[in-house]
Amino acid sequence: MVDISPTALGSSATSDIFQILRDGRPRTRTELATLTGLARSTVGLRIDSLLQLGLIGPAETAPSTGGRPSSQFALTGGNKVVLAVDIGATHVRIAVSDLVGRPLSEDAATIAVTEGPEAVLDWVITAGDDLVQRAGRTLEDLLAIGVGLPGPVEHSSGRPINPPIMPGWDNFDVPAWLGAHFSVPVLVDNDVNIMALGEREVAWPEIDHLIFVKVATGIGAGVISRGMLQRGAQGVAGDIGHVRVSRSSETVCHCGNLGCLEAVASGPALAAILSEQGLAAESSQDVIELVRSGNQKAIQAVRQAGRDLGEILNAAISLINPSVIVVGGAMAQAGEHLIAGVREVVYARSMPLATQHLQITQSSVGANAAVLGASILAIHHVLSPESVEAMVVDLADAAAR
Ligand SMILES: [Zn+2]
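Above are the sequence and the zinc ion SMILES. Below is the predicted complex in structure-token form.
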């Protein structure tokens, strides 16, 4: 079971009853009143609403002798589920999860994001229908969809904004396309942000200051500060791939600038550097294979990429003082060489107080971080006080009709 910490998506209602019951532990009315600071009457009303919605139930462990109803309640989620979608440059991963983040059914396919939004999202619709059925649920049980995309996203509208590797997706209304079929809220974010969420929930639930760096075809970071994902004003917070690295001067980046981090340290950049040196390297995977086979040129190139990344992270460390930096994405499979390069520069150059307890480590969640993060994005939305209140209103409307 995933321990879903309450604040990663910025809910201000951490003291709220819904947030407390999300850990799955049964509690009494009195405990909930104490924990939330709400009046017992308010707690009672909210429990009634949640019971009616089927989101919580009487706890099975409570004594039931004497015919008295159980006085403990726990999140059950009932049959309710969310759909999690991780759209990468060349793949789509999708899962149906219950409301505590357990995947019930999963699927994956090799689809290029360059095929365009209609083709990719139509696959998601077909696969989503199938997965809901395989999980033993119906579309009535589906409450929300979380989607990660490999480019900048305006989170409020769910639209990709000038995504460099996603032709045809600019300003595409992803929530409307999926919502037309599934009729549920659709939350969209960039893939690095959802990976940061997934990694934090699984590996670092107690850590409030974390940077997740994805090094793959592109380079980007997801920033969690004070327990909250930081998207910034336009949703591009953490977009470190196009910061200029000091040593590189004339390497042209696909963004049009010279010497960007992504132009010298991404998987394709390393493949290009190695193929110039006469090695058979066309892709990130080729670079990883060369490193694993012990090729010295490949190891040196990856280590230098780590140093370049470390240089940019130094500035980030000074700005937000994280306690954990996690390096993930395909290139993290190159193992300790990349991390070693990062550490070499960060520990040499950052202020001692900032690095005293700083951990720099490889992703432990790996390829599933994004799809897990997408499910958490959807679950946080479903279980937010606003969403639960909206469901309560719908319930009352339905009863009045
Ligand atoms: Zn660039």
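The mean pLDDT is 88.
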